[in-house]
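2024-03-11 09:14:02 INFO worker-7 job=invfold-0412 stage=load source=structure_tokens
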């Protein structure tokens, strides 16, 4: 493609027309992650490499798989949002302390309140997820124990044994029935949490 084809296009439009393979993509992304250490870079790149491999396994071409990931600058920004703790973005840096001491003193209560709210939301989300899986585990363990106990009750009372076995079977069935929705709901909640965290962090970058 000649350079005249790029006239009037911004840099992103030009890059979208350049189909990259997996190696080219990882090299370009590596160059945009200069603020991270080598271990963090490797983690980010391996994550996207895995996504590319999965899409190739589904029948997509290598270039198409790379193009679906989005723009490299956006991916680099997402990496910053994901790997940088909120407090590092919210709290002022040491070099700014002397210049904005008054402003910092005025905003400190708001910053602390903001961090407290984030911590509370984070705790509530994880408590909800743990509660859902705990209930599911109680159902399946209770069901297995009840069905095992029913065999011992058959000798004393067939009716009691049948009732206990039936209750255990219902409990185990419910745990199996609710496991997949619970797992899926947990993934949705965690994904929403990640997106919300990214949105909040983006205001401080």
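2024-03-11 09:14:09 INFO worker-7 stage=emit residues=205
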């Amino acid at each position: 493609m000649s350079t005249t084809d790029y006239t009037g296009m911004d840099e992103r439009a030009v890059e979208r027309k350049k189909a990259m393979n997996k190696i080219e993509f990882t090299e370009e992304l590596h160059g945009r992650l200069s603020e991270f250490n080598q271990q963090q870079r490797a983690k980010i790149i391996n994550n996207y490499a895995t996504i590319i491999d999965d899409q190739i396994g589904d029948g997509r071409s290598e270039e198409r798989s790379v193009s679906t990931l989005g723009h490299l600058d956006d991916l680099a920004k997402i990496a910053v949002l994901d790997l940088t703790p909120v407090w590092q973005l919210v709290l002022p840096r040491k070099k700014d302390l002397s210049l904005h001491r008054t402003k910092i003193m005025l905003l400190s209560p708001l910053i602390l309140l903001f961090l407290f709210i984030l911590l509370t939301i984070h705790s509530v989300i994880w408590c909800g997820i743990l509660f859902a899986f705990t209930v599911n585990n109680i159902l399946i363990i209770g069901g297995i124990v009840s069905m095992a106990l029913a065999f011992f009750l058959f000798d004393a009372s067939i009716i009691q044994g049948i009732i206990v076995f039936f209750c255990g079977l219902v409990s185990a069935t419910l745990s199996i029935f609710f496991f997949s929705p619970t797992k899926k709901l947990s993934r949705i909640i965690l994904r929403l949490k990640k997106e919300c965290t990214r949105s909040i962090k983006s205001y401080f970058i």
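2024-03-11 09:14:09 INFO worker-7 stage=report msg="The two ends are 36 Å apart (CA to CA)."
2024-03-11 09:14:10 INFO worker-7 job finished
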